[in-house]
Amino acid sequence: MAKDQILIVGGTGRIGHHVAQDLQGRMGAKIVVTGRQRPRHDWDFMGQFLALDLGNREQLQEAIAESQLVIHCAGPFHHRDARVLKGCIEQGVDYLDVSDHRSFTQKALALAPAAQEAGITAIVNTGVFPGISNSMVRQAVDPFDRVETIRLYYAVGGSGGAGITVMRTTFLGLQHPFLAWIGGQWQTIAPYSDRQIIDFGPPFDRLGVYWYDVPEAWTLAESFPVQNVITKFGSAPDIYNRLTALMTKLPQSWINHPWVIEGLSQISYRMTQISDRFSGVGIVMIVEVEGERQGKQAQYQSRFYHPHTAIAAGWGTGTLAEWIWQGKLKKPGVWPVEQAIGSDDFVEMMRSRSETEFYRAIAKKGSVRTVS
After folding, report:
1. Dihedral angle sign, alpha carbons of residues 282, 276, 213, 103
2. Alpha-carbon distance 222 to 58, whole Å?
3. Nearest Cα to 196, choosing from 207, 180, 183?
4. pTM for the full model?
5. Backbone torsions φ then ψ of 41, nearest 5 degrees
6. CB-based contacts of 76: which residues, under 8 Å, 6+ apart?
7. Confidence check: pLDDT of 242 > 60
8. What distance in Å separates the CA atoms of residue 277 and residue 158, rounded to the nearest whole number?
């Protein structure tokens, strides 16, 4: 009997919940969301809940075996292993995740040969950033004959509607320097350094952004023959950027301590519960590409805006899940988004969300401008 279940691991969290909401009613699938316990916040999801602890490997394997597609949303991913993906490979089940940390991405991509042999399609880093951001870069790069520099600037209003997990992810990202692809080689960068002012346009306008480690900083350098990949992130209101930058001045032993990370996350989340009313919870992303086209230097810029970051992440993952479920996307192996789908596929996927500004923001390509 054909399996008709989509399993969303960590589906009771804010991002997982929005993935579930996006899929609900779009397909004839049974949506099962997992969590350690049923959430106490408003629950407007009509699917099935399964109490599941990722530490219980036997129960996890049983849940995977009953599914046709598994979507891993149980972050933060900084210290996660790849047990969910390994379970999918063992059971022959397709896989997506919303992972947002380089170390996890590398663990997952290392399983590509096993996934290919098992015949499963596995795509990592889906969501909004990473995810939609990767496809925006794919669109930007395609017209060029040679690419020199990719720049990604992100701005998020307060919590982004993603709950406390996004705060934990932000502060965990301050713990260690990271490698960035600069001048055709990997160079060590201090997190939340080198402040730069970017005009994002409404609603954030001019905002400070800082070096930040995101998995696309690594996968884009692997996917395209490029000399520089620059990824900078900022929050609105700008005071949050100033405060976060100050946290990097704390003794490293403090930043590496779990209780410090949790304390900072709790305080920040309480602050955004107030400031979100004024800043909103939207996201703006700007992609800039410089390179050569038809023998001349050229530039490209595109912009994406959505008023709710977590909803945009749900849509980014949901579109891929829908195509895998329908059999339109079958590519055995483990892939970052920019290698899993092309620009035309990306635009076609977004058309299913065309009743909103989301599609219009995504599908309208930027223009290539010759500069010499």
Report:
1. negative
2. 35
3. 207
4. 0.90
5. -70, 170
6. 100, 101, 165, 168, 169, 172
7. yes
8. 9
Residue 181 exposed, middle or buried by CB count within 10 Å (0-12, 13-18, 19+): buried
CB atoms within 10 A of CB 229: 23
Q: At what angle do helices 133-141 and 343-350 cross, to 10 degrees?
A: 130
- The residues, ordered by sequence, that sit 6+ positions from 112 with a Cβ below 8 Å of its Cβ are 122, 333, 334, 335
Tokens of 211: 């070096």
- Say how far apart CA 336 and CA 334 lie, in whole Å: 7
Segments in 201-248 forming alpha helices (H): 216-223, 239-247
The torsion of the CA quartet 132, 121, 124, 106, rounded to 10 degrees, works out to -140
Dist. CA 178–CA 194, nearest whole Å: 14
How far apart, in whole angstroms, are the C-alpha atoms of residue 194 and residue 175?
17
Tens of pLDDT, residue by residue over 174-201, are: 778 999 999 999 999 999 899 999 999 9
Token pair belonging to 326: 């329908």
The answer to whether 302 and 368 have CB atoms below 8 angstroms apart is no
Give per-residue pLDDT as tens, 43-88.
566 678 899 999 899 999 999 999 999 999 998 898 899 999 999 9
Angle of the 216-223 helix axis to the 133-141 helix axis, nearest 10: 30
Q: For tokens 């949790």, what's the residue?
A: 262
Q: Tokens representing 122?
A: 């596995």
Edge-to-edge strands, sheet with 146-157? 196-199, 206-211, 228-236, 146-157, 283-293, 296-306, 367-370
User: Judging by beta carbons within 10 Å of its beta carbon (0-12, 13-18, 19+), is residue 218 exposed, middle or buried?
Assistant: buried
Find where tokens 């969300």 sit: 353
